[in-house]
Protein: GtrA family protein
Organism: Pedobacter aquae
Amino acid sequence: MLLSLHYFVKETILKTVDFFYPIFRKFMPLQTYRYAACGGSNTALNILIYFISYNFVLKKQIVHLPFIAISPHIAAFLIAFFITMPIGFYLNMFVVFKGSYLRRRIQFIRYFMVVMACVVLNYLFLKLFVEQFGWYPTPSAILTTVIIIGFSYLSQRYFSFRVRK
């Protein structure tokens, strides 16, 4: 039952994403397009989950755990992250980077390492651009996103989901 659900979901996503590819064929190869479409969709889902979590689930209140209090924006980030990170892995593994010879467990560990590196790089670039260079936060966030997307794509393609030539 789960296997048939997996095949249905995978094929539905591929058909939906690939339906729009002819518009972008002149600008990018299929794999890059799939990465952009899946990554963009997952990012939009992340933002939606963050918004709902922050405003309606957490109601902008501090989360009190036995040994720590977590601010609502960090708690919302964690909720969104732990939902969209496995979705991103699924999309990268079965839609974008199909055919890797690595075991799934190894792919997941590598994917998680790259995601963590992206979180750290995002933080460091924002600190550099805003606090050291004195740039405005929004253009800094946009430039940081462009840099991180490039790093993430190359890392996932050549490290997490490596394919034999």
The chain has two domains: 1-98, 100-165. The helical segments are 2-19, 21-24, 30-57, 72-96, 104-132, 137-160. The two ends are 34 Å apart (CA to CA). The chain has a mean pLDDT of 93.
